[in-house]
Amino acid sequence: MPTERVDVAVSSRTLLRASDPPPDFPAVLQASNLDLILGSFHIYLIAMYPAPAAGFPAVVAAARDAMPAFLSRFFPFAGRVVANADTGVPEIACDNTGAELVVARAGVRLADVDFADADRSLGRIAVPFQQDLALSLQLVRFACGGFALSWGTNHLLVDGHGLTALPSAWAELLRTGGLSWEPHHERASLFRPRDPPRYSASLDAEFTRYAPAGLPNSLLTATLVRRNYVVSAADVDRLRAAASTPARRATRLEALSAHVWKLLAAAVGGLDAHCRMAWLVDGRPRLDAARYDGATVRRYLGNVLTYASREAAVEAVSSSPLADVAAMAGAAIAEVFRWERYEELVDWMEVHKGVFREGGKWTEVVGTGMGSPALVVSTFVPFRVEGDFGFGRPRLVFPWVRPGRLGSAAMTVSRSPREDGSWLITARMWPRLADAVDADPDAVLKPATAARLGFGAPDPADVMQHATSRM
């Protein structure tokens, strides 16, 4: 039986500085207007490894030795996230105060961790850190000798593209002693507002002040449950086939979105006439090539994100074929998947920065939990994490965030480190939606048990499905 929860005891916290700070680096790095859209809050990327032959002390020594050189290339992460004294806008003080290396231990084996319950697993492994730290690199040893490597940082500095670039660069640096690419750190000059700023009036309705009066109370958000799931490559392919027609081939994300949209509608039932889906969309592929150099954008770690959303009648979602619901998802994403959208966001934030002077910030309405029930999907599937920094590949890679008072449901989809086409999902849901997932006759989202993640003996049913999918 899995343990009730993972208890983590911190052994040490050490500040490590860049050994070779880049010359003439600005003392303060201004956040771009796109960074300010999602704002400043902690985010983690957690990678789990089986026991390395060299032992955990060797892992700690390698991390401690490599950090100063790594921070020299990723210098803003040796700084602090601060508020500008005049405007209140968050920015990065690049003063080489140092990043944090945390070493901790958990008294359970990885095979005994209840990974399916995200709060009792990932939520315990992600060690809280000082609010202004730009980077907290965390190593947690388990009783079996396996370990977790967590990248704790601030969303102001990275989006999904940037967050997953950190462990991949780390792995390359430790294995080869160098990097085949250099990160692009300048932000505000990359996304300049137009003069005068201009944007669609509809953008005003997409945002609201992040303030208690406009959010669910803390007891309501505390009722949300967090679960981790595995979606096999065979189930992804089956969903995509069912969501496609001769006239339109659905993407894998559209197919999964259609399936979970139907689960959301089933959970809502007669409690509301409508429900919503939303997606976080990476804009890098759609930035204007005449204004943005493609190579620079790929090396840029900061935020290039926007939300797409669509509200629909519960009855329509429930009764429509999967292909029609997938087409609705695709249409919603296509509406924001254009370079003009990101220019408008830059201009909108330029006009609305005054909220920071008052100690506030903005948030997307669809994520608050107000209005019709909404499920926000964020996909890390395009981002491959090269996590082998000399001690083997991870068997699990999950993003993790503590969303505070935000009351919408959320699912973050990542590719499995096995690179076999399967996906990992970490979800935050109302109990009714979790029940709908559990009752799904197609059983697409399967609980992420230690066995399914490769930390225990495989489930015979999973072995049978894998064998069947290869026939």
From TrEMBL:
Keyword Acyltransferase, does the record have it? Answer: yes
GO molecular function: any one? acyltransferase activity, transferring groups other than amino-acyl groups
Keyword list (alphabetical) reads:
Acyltransferase, Transferase
Q: Which Pfam families match?
A: Transferase
Q: Which Gene3D superfamilies does the protein's record reference?
A: Chloramphenicol acetyltransferase-like domain
Q: Does the keyword rRNA-binding apply?
A: no
The superkingdom of the source organism is Eukaryota
Homology family: Belongs to the plant acyltransferase family.
Protein name, as recorded:
HXXXD-type acyl-transferase family protein
Gene of origin? Answer: LOC100191750
